[in-house]
Amino acid sequence: MTKHMVVEVTPILSVGVIYDAETKAIDRLIFENPKRRHLLGRIYSGRIAKVVESLGGAFVDLGLPQSAFIRMRELEKLPETALRAGQTIVVQVDKEPFQHKGATLSADIAIQGKYVVYMPYLGEIKYSRQLGNEATAVFSKILDETLNSEEGVIVRSAATDILATPESLAEEILALKARWYSIYKKGMLAPKPLCLYDPGGFYDMLAQTVERESIEQVIVSSKEMKMQLVENGIEKAIVAVEKAQNALWVEKNIPVEALLTQKVFKGPSGISVTIEETEAFTCIDVNSSQLLSRSAKDKAALAVNRAAVQVIHDAILAQNVSGAILIDFLEMEADDRERFYTQICRAYFSRAKGFMALGFTKLGLLEVTRKREQPSFRDLLSFDFFEKDLSYWQLNRLYFDLRQLRHHTRAKEVTITLETPLFVFVSQNDVFGDLDIKVKWKHREEPVKNYQIHT
Prior knowledge:
Elements: E1 3-9, E2 14-20, E3 26-32, E4 43-52, E5 57-61, E6 68-71, H1 72-75, E7 88-95, E8 104-106, E9 111-112, E10 116-119, E11 125-127, H2 133-146, E12 152-155, H3 167-189, E13 194-197, H4 202-213, E14 217-220, H5 223-231, E15 239-241, H6 248-251, H7 256-261, E16 264-266, E17 272-277, E18 282-287, H8 297-318, E19 323-328, H9 334-347, E20 355-360, E21 366-370, H10 377-380, H11 391-409, E22 413-418, H12 420-428, E23 438-443, E24 451-454
Helix pairs in contact: 2-3, 8-9
């Protein structure tokens, strides 16, 4: 697969789409919603609000609408002793808030550098799997001299670029240590909960993805975006600017909206997989009437399930589904099911891939969990998760519609009819002000199809 990425940034959403340059199949989506910014990786100075022994942890006030939670085993890693309500601690967000639950916190502080991830409480040195024995030998001595026994680092694959000058690694670590000391001191002296460190937003996520996924070309719609990407470490030569009035994924026929609304995913030979996301868990159902018409029904079921698991895995990643997942595979013989479970745990649902398979329930459902670091895309793009309204996505589409209208018709004023939730949002948020077109908003109580534009 030759991977390309298109990037669009509006006042409503920032969107990155990684896709196969030949087939236009979407590999991954990256979103940032300014109204629901990611907390993952942020370091906070927080106040312990309440220690709850029965839950094995404590609630922490971060100055956010919802209290965060940290487990007792994490609290025990902190240098502070005799932790109590009202005490200040410095912690990092390990899991995003979800629905009515606050963020989950960790004491395993991690500060990103270009060549290493510095972790003040790790107590060991880890190396990227892409680094060979030569790199380990070169860096080991200098790391032992730079770190004390409590500290640790994860050496990233990018460190291969400085094998000839390993002292550069020590320089970066010393800079990251100084930054951590400054963060910690500021946090412990803060009079109220405070965000002390943000690992970066949308452009940092793009830069990390380009490095990790070996993306060959990044396409943006403005020189300003290209400059921002280059400043965040993306090689200038692979970033191209293509002027477009519509969204770049629409111009290139990449089916982003279809993926966001898709519930049924097709596989080979008539296989289909249905995904239904709820607040508590996600249900996935496997169907295939075609293969089960064979006489060897059980063997056909095994073949269907083997083909379906690839579709399921790709769909989970594409829609960023996480949390508890229940999969209803076709019924198999006991021996086949045991072999199938072993195979899929190794190939698809391993811990290394961010999953944990918990086995088949008594009802024959496979129970899988995937760490919920961020909301699913349907959640992130909706005003109301239960309705899955994708309202932020609708507003983003409206932004491009108005940009096209202004370009093609030179219209200076339009009237747009919206139903109540969208009308309330645009009345309170000026997200179309940079389009050089006057918009008059009209409220309509009865449902309308997304929105209606009148020139």
